[in-house]
From TrEMBL:
The keyword Cell wall biogenesis/degradation does not apply. InterPro entries: F-box-like_dom_sf, F-box_dom, FBXO31/39. Pathway: Protein modification; protein ubiquitination. GO terms for biological process: protein ubiquitination. It comes from Saitoella complicata (strain BCRC 22490 / CBS 7301 / JCM 7358 / NBRC 10748 / NRRL Y-17804). It comes from the Eukaryota. This is F-box domain-containing protein. Residues 50-96 form the F-box domain. Keywords: Ubl conjugation pathway.
């Protein structure tokens, strides 16, 4: 599925940084320090030719360095003190700290990058977890008030006054000529926000908590999280769908074993591949009592963890998948009400199949019937509606044949049932379930609008 996005994401693999003993990317040790001397300049002064690099105007050197990647900058900084002074200029490092517009509470973008982001910046972004049935949606952000990278769980609750057992489905008369679109006024207005306490806090330089002698490599953090090797393509193809995360329905750069898999025969990475720690995967260990530490093995990864903890695999949800475009106006994250199961998050994505543009709705968080990573509904042709209706306020609703997926507990006896997809607006959609004589409403989620709890308190 999603071959166009998959090819794009595979090209991102070239951006991975190799494994280092420190577990960082961009640096292989501590932040760079000025060289002891200007030996390069002295050698050049005694050579038969001038130093063409140092002969360039500082403005041009800065322009060249602003286009270099981190590893090249670090190498250049160790040539001599002149280049070190130019390379530590803040204008260069502002790009590597994007989208942050201020280095506070650090004194400069150079300090912000070298003391925090070069090791912990990978955690920023949107992450989806494979917790059994239910999944998780997390956001990693830099907190300018604490100078830390913090990981928060995104939560959705019903409007005040509704209970967890109260169905928010809309009931309508299934006879087509008696359907009144006024029944589609939504009763689902969820409250979205980040949980007050972060699940994970990254301060920067973290001491290792396990032996890092190859092939057992551990990237350690203070709160039960480890970055892991990705599965190679052959391993993904040879595994059952439920043992791989993110699922095949979600385009991803890298994939790993799910929390339910203990397949020790899978090697990370594949034979003949250079070992890389993925910036798009990590495993998170939940639990408070760490009085007894045990070793467990995940592929080639030996992990020190409390035997009673339960780990969850996380994959990065790339920004391309959450960005609406002119060609894909419904693409992105949505939240809908699943009756007694409560609000659940979906990823809407497009795919061209047999000359039709198909809209897939994949559950990011799920329930015991249709769990995370599975398709909850699809629209076989999202380009050509079967009918439209213009309301009094001038907005046009579009109606499409659709299919919804239902299943028994544990995703057993799954089947597709007829439905109707109603495109209310780019911010609201409705799915009519003919089997249940009900309609459920979904609303777009903009994670950038969710503020950190610490920022809200200011």
């Amino acid at each position: 599925m999603f071959s166009e996005e998959e090819e794009l994401f595979k090209s991102h693999r070239a951006l991975r940084y190799p494994v280092t003993m420190s577990g960082s990317y961009g640096f292989t040790s501590d932040p760079p320090t000025p060289p002891d001397s200007n030996e390069f300049e002295a050698e050049e002064a005694g050579s038969t030719g001038p130093s063409y690099l140092l002969a360039l105007p500082p403005e041009l050197l800065l322009r060249i360095m602003s286009l270099a990647d981190v590893s090249d900058l670090i190498s250049l900084s160790q040539v001599n003190r002149t280049l070190f002074g130019l390379i530590t200029t803040d204008t260069i490092w502002k790009r590597h700290c994007a989208p942050h517009t201020s280095p506070a509470p650090y004194s400069s973008f150079f300090d912000m990058y070298t003391h925090l982001l070069h090791r912990e910046g990978w955690l920023q972004g949107v992450w989806i977890g494979d917790r059994q049935f239910y999944g998780s949606l997390l956001v990693g952000r830099y907190n300018p008030f604490t100078g830390r990278v913090e990981l928060y769980e995104v939560r959705a609750t019903r409007a005040s006054g509704s209970t967890g057992d109260e169905s928010q489905f809309l009931v309508w008369d299934a006879v087509e000529d008696q359907v009144d679109d006024t029944d589609l006024v939504s009763h689902f207005h969820p409250h979205l926000g980040l949980r007050p306490a972060p699940l994970l806090v990254r301060h920067g330089h973290m001491p290792p908590i396990a032996d890092q002698t190859p092939p057992w490599t551990m990237i350690a953090t203070e709160a039960h999280a480890v970055r892991v090797y990705p599965l190679n393509d052959d391993a993904v193809a040879g595994l059952p769908e439920r043992q791989v995360w993110p699922s095949s329905h979600i385009p991803a750069v890298d994939r790993t074993l799910t929390m339910m898999s203990r397949n020790a025969s899978i090697r990370h990475p594949g034979i003949g591949e250079e070992p890389f720690i993925s910036k798009d995967l990590f495993k998170f260990f939940r639990g408070e009592d760490r009085s007894t530490l045990n070793y467990i093995t995940i592929g080639m990864l030996r992990v020190v963890v409390n035997g009673r903890d339960v780990y969850e695999s996380f994959g990065r949800l790339h920004p391309e998948l959450m960005r609406r475009t002119k060609e894909k106006p419904l693409q992105g994250l949505w939240v809908g009400d699943y009756s007694a199961h409560g609000p659940e998050y979906l990823l809407l994505n497009y795919e061209v199949m047999e000359n039709n543009t198909v809209l897939h709705a994949v559950k990011i968080t799920g329930d015991p019937n249709v769990p995370r990573g599975e398709i909850t509904f699809r629209v076989p042709d999202i380009v050509n509606p079967v009918r439209t209706k213009t309301s009094e306020d001038g907005t046009t609703r579009k109606y499409y044949p659709a299919w919804g997926q239902i299943a028994g507990y544990g995703f057993t006896s799954s089947e597709w049932t007829e439905a109707e997809f109603v495109w209310m607006s780019d911010e609201e959609i409705v799915l009519r379930w003919f089997l249940f004589d009900r309609a459920s409403t979904f609303r777009r989620v903009e994670l950038d609008d969710l503020h950190l709890p610490a920022m809200m308190a200011q």
